[in-house]
Amino acid sequence: MKLKSWVAAGALFLVSTGAAIAANLTAPEGPVILEVSGEIANLNGDGVAQFDMAMLRQLDWREIETYTSFTTGMQSFAGPTLASLLAAVGAEGDRLNATAINDYFVEIPVADADAHNVILAAEMNGKRMRIRDKGPIWVIYPLSEAEAAKKPFDTEMIWQMNRLEVLD
């Protein structure tokens, strides 16, 4: 009889611990601007991690000055690092499908997050990016940095992104 009690208690502990690990992100209070799915450990929705602007600002928020093929001259971009977002959701994959509002998508290697200091820009030149301004999120590689300048990353720099799927 004691063995059954210990087994039941152990099973309950594992189930409750797993639920706590899988639900350790707070729920967004504002409008959701980014949804992350796929191979992630930390959730706040039904199989997804949803982020509002306040939640994104709690990540490793950076401001960088760089150029793109889609803008004129140097521009200032601000947003969380891709690496900090992936850490927050407990990403466990090698690739990302970044999808825009219009369902256009690109594949981004997870390794780029650290190798190139990629940010998920939500602001450009001090202003929040609206949909008409390539928002809510524009994936930005700091092309003005030597390492990122070695390869054109125009394809990976998807704008109007609102979904990210982590893949094996």
Automatic annotation (TrEMBL):
Domain (Oxidoreductase molybdopterin-binding): residue spans on this chain: 72-143
Keywords recorded for this protein, A-Z: Signal
Signal peptide coordinates: 1-22
Listed name of the protein: Oxidoreductase molybdopterin-binding domain-containing protein
Annotated source species: Pseudaestuariivita atlantica
